[in-house]
Structure formats: structure tokens, C-alpha cells
Amino acid sequence: MEKVIGIDLGTTNSCVAIVEGGTPTVIPNRGGYKTTPSMVAITEAGKRLVGHIAKRQAVTNAENTVYAAKRLIGRKWNTTQVRSALATCPYRIVEGPHDDVRIQLRDKLYSVSEISAMVLQEMKIIAEDYLGHEVRKAVVTVPAYFNDGQRQATKDAGAIAGLDVIRIINEPTAAALAYGFGRNLDRTVAVYDLGGGTFDISILEIGSHGVFKVISTAGDTFLGGEDFDSRIIDWLVKGFQQEHGIDLRQDRMALQRLKDAAEKAKCELSAVRETEINLPFIISSSRNEALHLQRMLSRDELERLCNDLIERTIKICESTLEDSGVSKDDIEDVILVGGMTRVPKVQHMVAGFFGREPCKGVHPDEVVALGAAIQGSALLDEQQEMVLLDVTPHTLGIMVVGGFFEPLIPQNTTVPTSSSKTFTTVRDNQTAVKILVLQGESQRAEQNELLGEFILTDLRRAAKGQVEIDVTFEINADGIVSVQAKDLETGRQQSITVTASSGLTQDEITSMIDEAKTHAVDRRATEAFEGTRQEAEKLMGDIERLFPQVEQIVSGSDFGRDAIEKARGVLDRARSLIERKDVEGLKEQLEALGRTQRMFKGVIAKTG
Ligand SMILES: Nc1ncnc2c1ncn2[C@@H]1O[C@H](COP(=O)(O)OP(=O)(O)OP(=O)(O)O)[C@@H](O)[C@H]1O
Ligand SMILES: [Mg+2]
Fold first, then answer.
1. Domain 225-307 - what CATH class?
2. What is the three-class DSSP state of 497?
3. Does domain 506-607 have CATH number 1.10.287?
4. Using CA atoms, how far apart are residues 518 and 530, in angstroms rounded to an integer?
């Protein structure tokens, strides 16, 4: 049966899992790690790096190394989140052609979906290496609080990576699936997921017959470990400014080193009470003296710097519990997900809020991918009895006269779902209506997220209020929205799958898919080449080492001189094949190299 992988495409780390013989397992990458940094870089030579290898060179190539792209995916250029990223990221974020965001690496502009596609492609390769065959189908997770634009853009990323994303599921829901899988539970749980970039809280009912029903969900898609790191960086930058009068933010490399050190210190403070941040030669003074940064950071100080961030997550928990109508006492288990839930203060405040210790036994970095894999296998296997009922995190509606927002589908409605309402014209002889599709909780349309718009034309001329237009909203199981408007008189209709905010046209996606494909081919070829090159160079080294000795022994005869000439030819040809990166040619040449090496060894063995 065809395999489907589950991918947790995280802000900081990504993870891929699969169900094998009924058991969900995380697939380690080539380095043996179960998670892979969601980082992408382009080297000076134009080479694409993803994962640990990108992370390792981030400091020396800060401008061309992207991290936390998920914070930008599906966002419009003119948003506070993009402004904030602009101010803090060492890589170049620029305005795209559709009011979207592009990232410049070397001399090329990439859409955020393309960057995420590189990470997805890496996860696909990790799974393929492990399984030994191609993988096409995937379930990809997104934060529950992602809106339609962010979901669309994530789906686009999957397509660019050559994956058939059979379902998008919410991260806390995936975590609950992994938690409840095969355990025949019957209980109400809360999933608190604080990762690198986003925060989600979901309340779910797990039924004993494999029913996972989300009751309510809420979150903040710009609140996570990155913000904690920023607080530490601010603190360091401020201190340095006071001491030396120099703004470290001006230097991209210094900024990347600060970011590294801040994250490291934050993680260390989960285990110890105090840590030293030590960055020698961080920058030069105006008199060209090397300056160092050295400071102690205590856990208390960190908690002081970040307390309001944790408070914000608790406030969101409070309001979602209220919305769900579930009382704290009804929650039978609190599941912690995300690397940031290792922070003692986070654990402490969550336990305090819910009035119970969070459950141990789920792996905060792996549960989401495991849940995605479980959902994937359930989608392909009809035998499996598992029902997942998720909800839409945001209210959906349209703008009506006066700039008000008219909801059609309220937040926390179980998806898939659809809903219709009839609207009328507002002027006499009005022949067109513009439908603005919005997502959000404000009564004022302009304060909500615009998902898309379309115009229904050629309406019948009539007095205001006489022409009726039926608007239908549909949310599919991926949480993706489509809208249809229909003139009830003429039956004329217009519909859109709301794609405007993903920022990519279908043509752009198609050309990116092609490019990613050639890249996958390219990458595999490079790997094959590296292996062959190493093999060839080992043989060449042997031959070269023995050359003077062999030459001396055999050059007395024509036959010997001939053999030496041939050996020289074999080496020259191998060198030129390596230079031209000709894998196939080099593979064939291995034979000749092997023969020469054996021959040389033979000559020496005979005479020595
Ligand atoms: N021991 C630790 N102490 C404190 N923070 C930690 C620890 N380990 C990891 N983190 C932080 O957790 C975050 C990464 O968590 P995780 O891998 O769950 O995020 P993600 O899934 O990539 O992001 P998201 O789910 O928000 O998209 C980073 O900010 C990292 O610094
Ligand atoms: Mg996560």
C-alpha cells in the first residue's frame, strides 16, 4: 500500500513520521537527529543548504540564511508581523508583487512558500532515504490559529516540493491524535503548544471509539520561542550600547551570533539557574579595537524579561476555555507540546492555571509529526476507525454596507462545513455587487483579514433591496475556504477558492514546482557524485603514492614505459571527469583506476 508521511513543518524545527505496521515512528535524518532545523541557505557558490548544515554556517552567511520563514508565510507585506521581522532578521525581506513577502538570497528572490518548500523537500528526502522508495503523499501540520492565507501558502509549499498534501491538520489536534492513538481513552484534554514561532491552545474530547473532537481552539501565530530570544537579544544589545555606545544590530553577523547565543542561553536556563553569554570579537570599536560581549544571565532575569509573553498564553487559555463552555475541572489531562514547554516557568504557569500537573509521556518535539502520520495512514486505510472533527479557528464572513462585518461561519464551527445567507442590493438599479471575504473577530470589516474579493455583475435592474444574492461559504477538511455568490433571479454565479492571500498565482506555483524538481534531481546527482569522487580519489591517492617507485622499477622496458603512460592517462582522465562533475564517466573510470592500483601494488609486491 502507498505510504503517506506526516510532516510537522515547524518554525524552528521540522519532523517527519510514518506509520509502519500500525506503529507511528519518527524518521531520523542522515545525522541521526529526529528533528531538522527549518533553515535554508544559499552558499556563495550558489549551493542550496537545508537543515543542520544550513544552521552550522548561519553565522558566516547570515544574510543568505533564512530561519523562521513560517512566521512570514501567507502574510501580507503591510502587517505589523512583517515589520517586526524586518527589524530583527539578518536576511533580506522585500515586498513581493502581490502585496506579499519575498526573501532575497544572493541575487534571487524567493517567495516564502518556496523557502518552506525547500524544508518540506528535505523532509521528503529523509523519508525516502529511510524507506528506500519515492514518497508522494503527505499530511502537513499548521498551527491551529493559522488563517486561510497561511494554510493556502503552506499547501502551495507542499506542491512546490513535489508533495501531494492530502490533508492539512492543526498541530494541537495532531498532538492529541498521537496522545490518544490506540489507547481507547474517553476524556477531555487541553493541548498547550508553545513552539518556536506560534502558540496554540485546543480543547478536545477524545472518545473511546477513535473519535477526536475539537471543541475550541485559539492562539497567536506570532508568539513563541523567537520572541523569548528577541527579549534576550534586546537585553544584550542595550547593555552593550550602554557600555560601548555601539549598536550591535547594525552588523548582520553580530546579530546572528547574538541570536545563537540568546537561544542557547534560554535553553540552558531550563536546566540551570545561571549561564554565561560569551561572544568574543563581536564587533570592532571606532578605533578599530576588537570588542567582546560577556554577560551573566540568570533564570530569574530571563523570567522577568519574558513574563508578559507567558502571561499572554495564559490569557488565551482563559478565553478559549470560556468560549468552549468547558470548565477547568472538566479537563482531565493537559498535554504540553513544543520545545518552549521545557521552560520551567511555562510549566509552572500552565500547571497553576489548569490546577493540575501536565501529563508526562508525550514527546514535545515529536508528537505533532506522529499525529500527522497517524492521520495520513487513517486517510488511506479505510479499515482504520478514526474520526477527526476539527474546528475553524476564525469567524468567516463578508463586508456589508457601512463597513460592518457580517459573519457566515462562526469560529469553532466543526469543519468541513458550509453556510449560506441572502443579501440584497443597497441602491436602486445597482447592477453589480462586490463581495469582500474576510476572516476575523472584529465587527468592523477593515479590522479583519481580507481573504479575497470578487464582483458579481449584470444583476437585474430593480429598486434597492429587490435583487437578492445568495452567498455560500464552504470550509473543507483542510480548513481552506471557498465562496460562491449567486444572483437568485438569473441563477448567474461566481465563485472563488480564496487564493489571493497566498501571494502566488497558479503559473508561479507551476514554474516553482519545475524548479524544485530540477533541484531534487540536481541534489541527488550531487550526492552520487560525492560518493563516487571519494572512491575515485582514494584510488588516485594510492596510485600517485606508488607512482615514483613503480616508474623506477618498470621504466627499463618498452612495455613498462607503455604501462606508465597508460597509468598517467587514467589519472588525467579521472581528474578531468572530477572537474566536469561527470558522475557516469567517473563511475566507469573507477574500473580503470582499480585496475591500475592493483597493477601497481602487484609490481611492488613482486619486486619488493
Ligand atoms: N530546553 C529548552 N529550553 C527552552 N527552550 C527550548 C528548549 N528546547 C527547545 N527550546 C525552544 O523551543 C523552540 C522550538 O520548539 P519547537 O521545535 O517545538 O518549535 P517549532 O515546532 O519549530 O515551532 P512552531 O510549532 O511554533 O511552528 C525554540 O525557540 C527553542 O529555542
Ligand atoms: Mg511546533
1. alpha beta
2. strand
3. no
4. 18
CA 455, chain centre distance (Å) = 34
Start-end ranges of CATH 3.30.420.40 in the chain?
A: 4-224+308-390
Say which amino acid occupies 345: K
Q: Provide the 3-class DSSP secondary structure of residue 568.
A: helix
From residue 410, give the alpha-carbon distance in Å to each of 80, 158, 443, 475: 25, 28, 12, 12
Q: Does residue 47 have an active-site annotation?
A: no
Mean pLDDT by 10 residues, the chain (608 residues): 93 97 94 95 93 91 96 93 93 92 96 97 96 96 94 94 96 96 93 97 92 94 96 97 94 91 97 95 87 96 98 96 92 97 97 94 94 95 82 91 90 93 88 86 85 81 87 89 87 69 65 67 65 88 92 84 90 93 86 87 75
Catalytic residue status for 8: yes
Q: Which of 148, 156, 193, 365 is catalytic?
A: 193
Domain with CATH 3.90.640.10 in the chain: 225-307
Which residues line ligand 1 at a C-beta cut-off of 6 Å?
Answer: 10-13, 70, 195-198, 224-225, 263, 266-267, 270, 338-340, 342-343, 365
**CATH number for the segment(s) 4-224+308-390:** 3.30.420.40
Cα(558)–Cα(522) distance, rounded to whole angstroms?
45
Q: Are 138 and 181 in contact (CB under 8 A)?
A: no
Residues forming a β-bridge with 199: 194, 220
CA distance 400 to 450: 13
Residue 357 appears among annotated catalytic residues: no
- Residue 506: helix, strand or coil by DSSP? helix
Architecture of the domain made up of 392-502: Sandwich (2.60)
Question: Beta strand pairing status for 187-194 and 333-337?
Answer: parallel
The three grid cell numbers given for residue 410, joined into one nine-digit string:
462562526
Which residue spans of the chain are classified as CATH 2.60.34.10? 392-502
Q: What are phi and psi of 441, to 5 degrees?
A: -110, 0
Residues 6+ apart with CB under 8 A from 394: 145, 147, 148, 411, 439, 440, 441, 449
